[in-house]
């Protein structure tokens, strides 16, 4: 498995016309848990340090999380031990042209290859392809875990088009955990990660704002040696009014 150099748009000129849309979800006690239960733990403490800052207090935030909770990117190593870990991808890999496709649906409905192909606005090699199912607002609800998902054939279509990344506003692009036969083959994860297509899960409400618009997708993972994923805060950079 080798890293792909994405071919995409460059950010707009920083002359006041740049619009930035946050595509992430917040980290809170109410967040959706990976495997339904594993959430981020956040604790803020006042630190007893003597200082001379008038009216000031020194605080420290303790942050404990599995890297697959919240908005995060999966590296190939998440499924394949010989695949790249998150620190082994070149940083240029995380800047690309973004394509947001509006495919809203209710419940555990599958997105087929035919539907994705019909909605394809012109996916180019290296693109970050973001699927808007309309589920971001349910992030703290129980029914967020019974969500739309891609078929294995739809994942194969993304590989054929040369996509560099798939993102979606659901907890996983594979079938919901409660509906899986055992053993489960993870057709979307295995197809994409085996073919060097990264996966971003739990995209936030901002995704709805960029559907049908031209944008540059930017994110920076934490450089975790040997890591199989990393929390991220993806951004869409757009020219205002476009």
Written description of the protein model:
- It contains four helices and 13 strands.
- The chain is α/β, with parallel strands linked by helices.
- The protein has one domain (18-27, 67-239): Glucose Oxidase, domain 1.
- The chain has a nine-stranded mixed sheet. Strands 2-3 form a two-stranded antiparallel sheet.
- Helix 3 links the parallel strand 9 (165-168) and strand 10 (198-201).
- Helix 1 (113-119) crosses helix 2 and helix 2 packs parallel to helix 3.
- The longest helix has 10 residues, at 152-161.
- Residues 5-9 have low confidence and may be disordered.
Descriptors for this entry?
13 strands; alpha/beta; 242 residues; Glucose Oxidase, domain 1; two-stranded antiparallel sheet
Fold topology:
Blueprint: E1 18-22, E2 41-46, E3 59-64, E4 72-74, E5 95-102, E6 110-111, H1 113-119, E7 128-132, E8 149-150, H2 152-161, E9 165-168, H3 187-194, E10 198-201, H4 207-210, E11 215-218, E12 229-231, E13 235-239
Parallel strand pairs: 5-7, 6-8, 7-9, 9-10
Antiparallel strand pairs: 1-13, 2-3, 4-10, 4-12, 5-11, 11-13
Helix pairs in contact: 1-2, 2-3
Give me a quick take on this structure.
With 242 residues, this protein is of the alpha/beta class. It has helices at 113-119, 152-161, 187-194, 207-210; strands at 18-22, 41-46, 59-64, 72-74, 95-102, 110-111, 128-132, 149-150, 165-168, 198-201, 215-218, 229-231, 235-239. A nine-stranded mixed beta sheet has the order 1-13-11-5-7-9-10-4-12. Strands 2-3 form a two-stranded antiparallel sheet. It has a two-stranded parallel sheet with strand order 6-8.
């Amino acid at each position: 498995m080798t890293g792909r150099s994405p071919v995409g748009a460059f950010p707009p000129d920083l002359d006041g016309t740049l619009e930035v849309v946050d595509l992430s979800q917040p980290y809170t006690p109410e967040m959706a848990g990976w495997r339904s239960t594993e959430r981020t733990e956040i604790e803020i403490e006042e630190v007893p340090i003597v200082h001379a800052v008038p009216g000031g207090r020194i605080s420290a935030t303790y942050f404990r999380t599995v890297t697959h909770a919240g908005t995060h990117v999966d590296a190939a190593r998440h499924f394949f031990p010989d695949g790249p870990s998150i620190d082994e991808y070149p940083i240029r890999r995380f800047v690309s042209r973004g394509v947001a496709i509006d495919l809203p649906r209710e419940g555990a409905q599958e997105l087929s290859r035919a539907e994705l192909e019909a909605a394809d606005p012109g996916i180019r090699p290296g693109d970050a392809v973001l699927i808007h199912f309309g589920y971001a607002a349910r992030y703290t609800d129980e029914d967020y875990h019974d969500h739309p998902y891609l078929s294995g054939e739809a994942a194969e279509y993304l590989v054929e088009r040369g996509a560099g990344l798939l993102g979606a506003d659901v907890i996983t692009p594979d079938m919901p955990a409660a509906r899986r036969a055992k053993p489960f083959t993870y057709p979307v994860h295995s197809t994409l990660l085996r073919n060097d297509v990264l996966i971003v899960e739990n995209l936030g409400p901002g995704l709805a704002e960029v559907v049908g618009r031209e944008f540059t997708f930017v994110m920076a993972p934490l450089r975790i040696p040997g890591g199989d994923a990393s929390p991220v805060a993806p951004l869409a950079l757009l020219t205002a009014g476009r």
